[in-house]
Every structure is written in C-alpha cells, then in structure tokens.
Amino acid sequence: MFDSPADVSVRLAAASYLSGDSIATSVYLAAALGKPLLAEGPAGVGKTQLAKAVAEATGATLIRLQCYEGLDEARALYEWNYKKQLLRIQATSTDEDIFGEEFLLERPLLKAIRASGPTVLLIDEMDKADVEVEGLLLELLSDFQVTIPELGTIAAVSRPYVVLTSNATRELSEALKRRCLYLHIAYPTPERERDIVLSQVPSIRADLAEQLARTVATLRALELKKAPSVAETVDWARTLLALGRDELDEETVSATLGVVLKHNSDHVRAVKELGL
Fold first, then answer.
1. How far is it, in rounded angstroms, from Cα 227 to Cα 230?
2. Cβ–Cβ contacts within 10 Å for residue 125, how many?
3. N or C: which end of the chain has fewer CB within 10 A?
4. What is the pLDDT of residue 88?
5. 146 phi and psi, to 5 degrees?
6. Is 37:164 a contact under the CB 8 Å cutoff?
C-alpha cells in the first residue's frame, strides 16, 4: 500500500490529513506487516479520520463498524434473513437448505473479509463495545477469517487494512492488543493544529489560524468536561469566515465559544479563565 513512512506522509497529506513521524511510521508498518492498527487517544484527535484518509490515499473501499454498548454478532458479523427463510419454508415442501448464501445478510466484519478489492476496515470506538465483541474479533484479527457454523470457515479473499480506534474509556484486553500495532494519538501542538486548520480551511489567514490554535490549546489546559476536538477547531475557523470576523478578540470568542465548548460548566470556566 505504501513504499515508506515518507510516502505515507505525502499521500495522507494529499488526502488532507497531516501526519507526524509516529503516525506515518505506524500506518506504514501496519501495511507492511499485515497487522491491525489500534489508534488510541482522546476523542476528536483524528483517529477515525486517519482510517478515512488511508482509504482515500490508497483508493481502498472503507467499511466501518461503529461500536456501541449492546453490539452483537448479528450486527457486527452476519445474520440470517429469517423472513426470507420463512417464506421459502412455506413455499416448498422439500427439505431445502435455508442456510445458504441466498439467505445470508453480511454485516461489516464479514463484508470486509469477503471483499475482493482493497479494503480499509474501520472498527470505530472499540472501547464502547462489550467485552464479548473483543472475543468475536480475535479470530478475525489473528487469521483474517471467520467461522459461520452453517457455512464453515471463510478466509479473507484480500486481507483488509484494519484500523481500530479507542477513546480509552475502558481498558481493552491484552489478547486484542497483542494482535495489533499500537499508536497513541494526542492533541496536536498549536503549530501542528495551525497547519491542520490551514489545510482544511485554506482561505483563512495564517495569523488567525494561529490565534485559533493557541486559544484552543489554552482551553484544553483547563479542567473541562469535554476538551475541544481538532474537528471543532476547524469548525471554529469556518465559523469566523462565515461571520466575516478577521480577529479572535474577546467579543468574537464570547459570541462563538459554543462552537468548541458543548457544556455550560465548560463555558463558565472558560469565560472566567480567559477573562471574557
């Protein structure tokens, strides 16, 4: 997929994702070694966007499994089309097999395994899923195959590039981590965030982008319920352009703080600490 970490940086940048050395190296090694990449870090630092950028940079199809509490095998891997099976039973008097391909409903994991072309499988917010889902993933991440009792073992036609993300709200199992390369993504430095803003909002002035990045860094240093994400910094930049503001003064910050802070207690603390 990539020739080198430098090649990763260039191609991700072309997909509007600015990566540092650690990200570029991890993305390259995951492809070179054929191992899943576990990207962990605070919400909003670009973990999900990294998988999207890898898919765009390589021309691969992105298949996403969004994790949540209560996610089960039927939603993650496969289930049977029970309505179609029932209709077949009612329409025929033979002992026809109703557990064939015709009745199989693919979910994201099985779809990624059976894909014939280049595929990026994004398993998003793994820490939100129940522990049982990790057990479901162990066979897939070890051997890139899944077992369906009625059909047998299905091996990957073309091994997908797998990215798992986690906001670290709970500790993932050691068995799952052993199967992955690990990448921690922290909030970017103000300089890096300025560059991200300029790449996403090219019409904004460089000095205003720097003001935004430094103000957001100040906000993240406060004890907030939810620190601003990189995406929210970009949204703030677009907000200033939409309002025709060319300076991040006290009036502008007060009027637009809701773009980056989504809890009233965070607003109160920010107003107090920033002296607004």
1. 10
2. 19
3. C
4. 83
5. -135, 155
6. yes
